[in-house]
Design a protein that fits this description.
By secondary structure, the chain is mainly alpha-helical. Helix content is 66%, strand content 0%. The mean pLDDT is 79.
Length: 166
């Protein structure tokens, strides 16, 4: 045990072999990540599928649409997710769930697309997030498979919800 400790504490001998290589600054810089064409393809496919014919959905859910409209009228309604303009009734979700939609409606005007496009873009981001989290642990092929699965499941559930609403 004492010899292994001495080996760890041993100082490297002086001389030309102990000097740093000439490309030491380059070794310290962070490497650029390798390009991932499967991720780019999955993100483009998810964006096309999520944004395709988005205006067919109308207001999606009128209850939450009215809440978003109310949230754009005052800061109190925005922070608390108030359904009515007076700010008395709140929705059954945390207000964070509707903040992105309310910010989009405030920025681009209140319309069905200003409410639905942020949701579609968050769906695209979730595909990238699942790819990254799964790919780090299990490899690129597993990341691509998992993100394809979540894209298909999300698309199927969106179709099912839109059929119920109409």
């Amino acid at each position: 045990m004492l010899t292994s400790l001495r080996r760890r504490l041993a100082v490297a001998p002086a001389g030309p072999s102990a000097s740093l290589p000439l490309d030491a600054p380059r070794a310290r810089t962070r490497r650029l990540p390798r390009p991932r064409p499967e991720l780019a393809g999955l993100l483009v496919l998810a964006a096309v599928l999520n944004l395709w014919a988005l205006s067919k959905n109308g207001w999606a859910n009128e209850y939450y649409s009215a809440t978003v409209r109310s949230m754009t009228t005052s800061w109190h309604n925005f922070l608390y997710g108030a359904f009515d303009p007076a700010g008395v009734m709140t929705v059954d979700k945390p207000p964070l769930a509707l903040w992105v939609q309310a910010a989009s409606a405030k920025l681009f005007g209140f319309s069905s697309l200003s409410m639905l496009v942020p949701q579609a873009l968050m769906g695209v981001a979730s595909v990238g997030l699942v790819y990254d989290l799964t790919g780090r642990r299990f490899g690129r092929a597993a990341g691509a498979t998992a993100s394809t699965k979540i894209r298909n499941d999300t698309r199927a559930s969106n179709r099912k919800l839109n059929r119920r609403a109409s």
